[in-house]
Write a structure and sequence with these properties.
homotrimer, alpha/beta, Rossmann fold, 5-stranded parallel sheet, 4-stranded parallel sheet, globular
Chain lengths: 312, 312, 312
């Protein structure tokens, strides 16, 4: 088998579906691209990418849009629900069929409903990439996160990773946990009880040999971590918001919270952030989140290029 | 006169304005393009298309956008009212003047007000295509519909066409009726009394030698049709919605409703659909609506190419 | 120093920051471009423009979008707040950092908050152009306005300019006043007391040798003007709207209001207009506002080309 057979024509709907070798292949190719900027420019000329964002996301949409255009593709679709026939009740099924009819070579789907990307993949024979669906999966974000980790440490094995925030409903956290389970890492889930990681995620991790720890407060574990992955807590999701107000400070990452951190700690955040990650961290060596965000562009170029067999 | 003189520089604001020869020319050129994909790519390089969608439509917008870009044009304008100065009260007049000033070579206008496209055509000397305006006209959709019929039967003459749904306010139905009146067809309008086709449409058809029949229920006519054109009924438009609930089922197209249909029947729908056309029809030979939708892209490429004299 | 050193890499955040020579350079280059259309096409090929319109504006957005694309740049960003992560609370800071990470070579920022463009310019080393921020500045509009004046009269010195409407909160009026203060002009501010020009603008003008007059009614000054710059009055901004209704007619520009005007008078308006400028003026020689609007495209091409050193 040639080297691109792992990705050629395949869907990307869950981080669970990828093996260590596949993640490593994507990461290496992304690192190569970052060293020689532009070397994938135009490899997919003449192709059409349909970006169907039923839910808005400036960051993810823009990176897929720029990546598609740099690869030479034309872009169609929509960046959010307004201005589309969705308001008339157009279904995901018919929308996918329509853009397939218009000649789309690849689909990128973001949707609030769990499983939407997998459903889209069943409708069309063209490859479908999830750009986040429901509260479970955002597989390309997990690849971007791994890339940021490897960029900081040159490796993923051997690292102690803390994941903080809304682990129950945060789609990026479960996708990253699935991805990390392919490596030799220690994972600690840091969250209030009501927002702790879902049991089926922990179970899969254990089956893969990674037994996650659970903590209620960052301070109990901050000093031991190599990577701290921060996500937002949306108060509305806590059964007792008043109760949460009392403990909220335990989940805010600022210089005080990082007092005991290793100097080599790297803080990641999928962004956008609100107040769970203080801007005072931006200027420190801890801050890896803007590097992380910037990686979204080359990584998505690499991924689409491998899937559509664009060469290089 | 050279062969492109029929379309060069002209506006497309009503299906009434086109003759049989002109429809046939568009259809033949679209069939040619579908056989040799890409042969119009880049013929309008350097030109600018202004897509002014004061009313959103994913399907129509995307097909014009992709068509314009495949022809080599740059695209500007807006896909819906949000994010535009329309919210500040910018008029259609000033918007058209502005994009003319920015060098637009062709305008595609969608608007909720009847006559908006014709008004735009009076403002600018550049060609204006209606992408649907008011409840009367959607001329390029009618061309797309004819294309789907001819693709299924190899001809239009001699066919029995039923049109079902909201014929009074549905812009696609009246445009298709105007277009079909250039051919030797039998037309049956199937709708509740309150939503039957407007008298002036029937009158024009009669003047052109096509006397439409009217029916209240699909079941009375289903077995005789070659083509069934389905459109949505919006309950709010019925004077007595409670009364309508009782008869609603008579206008839903599903396998039961098609029990007596000819095996060769083709069902069309301009899409998006809600529940007036059951998904169980999708897998049958009756379903022509996704083929119909896909034709929107090549047909609109052909049309814009003829209007702007792009060659080929 | 080579000729482009005045603009290379610089931010455009206030009309106050530019000198007469710089305005003249932009105007001359724009006039040159208008004479030889297309001569800047593709000069910035391979570059990426991030258009961040936190506030919608069809006119300004479209001109920057088309200008960027004609220069050969790819375009990313958003045309308005809907469909972006802004609804999740993404800050201007993080949005700029993100697009910088995605390789943006130039930023165009429109925002409702005063100083947003200058703040963006502090975040990134890439050049930032204000496309209007707060109620104070819209510097490229001022350049477009000067261009329209020079196009009508062949000069700016020696002209009598009246500025009418909401001068207190109208961002285009203060930017134009700053720009005009570099020339030998007479300026009259025509507005109800509550909406007269802010003191600091008048002060800067005086320091630069242009002492503005103030009038309450157009009719007292209409006969003396060479240029009448009209802007909208938003009733909500008047402390006593009922009182304003009585005098509203004094600020509506129609043929009656222009009865005493010089035949050579030119009326400008940044558009969009509502009812402060009657359409009956459109057909007269007074109307310079569509010429003015059309100038937005070549002028913004020239400006971005100079800033990014695209040659020609």
């Amino acid at each position: 088998m040639g080297p691109s057979t792992d990705f050629l024509g395949r869907d990307v709907v869950s981080a669970r579906d990828f093996k260590r070798e596949q993640f490593e292949r994507i990461l290496r190719a992304t690192e190569d691209l970052e060293k020689h900027r532009g070397s994938l420019d135009g490899t997919l000329k003449g192709k059409l990418a349909a970006l169907l964002f039923f839910e808005p996301s400036t960051r993810t949409y823009s990176s897929f849009q720029i990546a598609s255009e740099k690869l030479g593709m034309k872009v169609t679709g929509f960046a959010g629900p307004t201005g589309s026939s969705i308001t008339k009740g157009e279904t995901l099924h018919d929308t996918v069929k329509m853009f397939e009819g218009y000649g789309a070579d690849i689909f990128v789907v973001r949707h609030s409903k769990m499983g939407a990307a997998r459903f889209a993949a069943e409708i069309t024979d063209k490859p479908v990439i999830s750009a986040g669906d429901g509260s479970r999966e955002h597989p390309t974000q997990a690849m971007v996160d791994l890339h940021a980790i490897r960029k900081a440490f040159g490796k993923i094995d051997g690292l102690k990773v803390g994941m903080l925030g809304d682990l129950r409903y945060g789609r990026t956290s479960s996708s990253l946990a699935y991805a990390l389970s392919n490596f030799d890492v220690e994972i600690t889930f840091i969250a209030p009880e009501a927002l702790q990681m879902r049991p089926e995620v922990s179970l899969l991790l254990k089956q893969r040999g990674v037994t996650p720890k659970k903590e209620k407060a960052l301070k109990d574990v901050a000093g031991k971590l190599d990577v701290l992955y921060v996500t937002r807590i949306q108060k509305e999701r806590i059964p007792d918001p008043t109760e949460f107000e009392k403990v909220k400070g335990m989940y805010e990452v600022n210089l005080e919270a990082l007092r005991d951190a290793k100097p080599s700690l790297k803080v990641l955040h999928p962004l956008p952030r609100v107040d769970e990650l203080a801007t005072e961290v931006d200027g420190t060596d801890y801050a890896q989140y803007f590097v992380q965000a910037a990686g979204g562009l080359p990584l998505r170029m690499v991924l689409m290029n491998l899937i559509l067999g664009g060469g290089n």
